[in-house]
Specification:
Layout (H helix, E strand, L loop, with lengths): L3 E5 L3 H13 L9 H6 L5 E7 L4 E9 L8 E4 L14 H17 L2 E7 L12 E4 L3 E5 L4 H7 L2 H12 L3 E5 L5 H14 L10 H7 L6 E8 L2 E10 L3 E9 L8 H15 L4 E5 L7 H7 L6 E2 L2 E6 L2 H14 L14
Parallel strand pairs: 4-5, 11-12
Antiparallel strand pairs: 1-2, 2-3, 3-4, 5-14, 6-14, 7-12, 7-13, 8-9, 9-10, 10-11
Length: 339
Amino acid sequence: MTDFIVLDATCSGDREAWLAIWNDSDHREPFAHPTYVALFAGDGRPLCAVSQSRALMLPFILRPIDPGSSELHDIISPYAYGGPFGASSDVRGLKSFWDELTHWASAHNVVSEFIRFSLHASNRGYPGEVRTGQDNVVRSLSPTIEDIWRDAEHKVRKNVQKAERCGVVVHRDDDTLLFDEFWNIYRSTMDRRDAAARYYFEREFFEAVHQMKGSFTYFHATLQGEVISSELVLSSARYAYSFLGGTRAEQFAVRPNDLLKYRIIQWAKESGREAFVLGGGYGCNDGIFRYKQSFAPQGGTPFFTGRRILNPAAYARLVDARAMTSTTVDSSFFPAYRA
């Protein structure tokens, strides 16, 4: 097997090889799992570029630009974080990896590329434009749990204590026994927030996630036996990620989500993880971001994206064609022909 390969999760042999490389990695990031990438492929192909000598994995989706034709494609990372995972600090090695991907992309008529870099990976050596997005909140777990508690904002500590006094108890659920309760709370939370369509996932989505044994855990806050706040946490060998969840509006007063988040932090610390990623907000420094930051006031971490045009002539033609069919193209969107 050559050093640089691109594996396709829809091909059984490639999927087995992808899983074997993922299982042998020292990170086992959920976002690099073939099941996860396939969930976001749509009419594209769930792929992963692998450099075995450098232990690098870059999951991505190869999308047809015209679904009725296979002539032109573009590349995008799946939802959340896209890698490269296992990236070393060797800038020369990283540059070589991107050069190999560029050569592959050229052979597959790729017009443009949009990468969501992992918070823990290096974007050095990337041949395109790197942009800074909204900060994400990362709770380092290297301090003692006592220091983590003291570092949280006063309102977090106050709310955790209130939830405990009210009788709220948090349970870990590795076996999806209370999935229906999670599902109902998650859906009602998305409705209440009038969330964008990309944050709504059907039951089939979660059933696929449940196939990723060891990479997910549910946490439920209960009051008198009733689930009132719930969260799905994804995890790698090193990190835990707040993924999806919600709280019953009628139980806000007992502050169950503060206790839920703190118990997840305790679990992640006790299980040997290096950090708990709470994520970002819908907008820059909005209420959701500030809430997450209250658990890690110094935990703001830049989120980087990468974009590049690999076929300028084709890109220009596509942008021109898009402009002829729409008068409301968002000039900041990339690639512009999908705005």
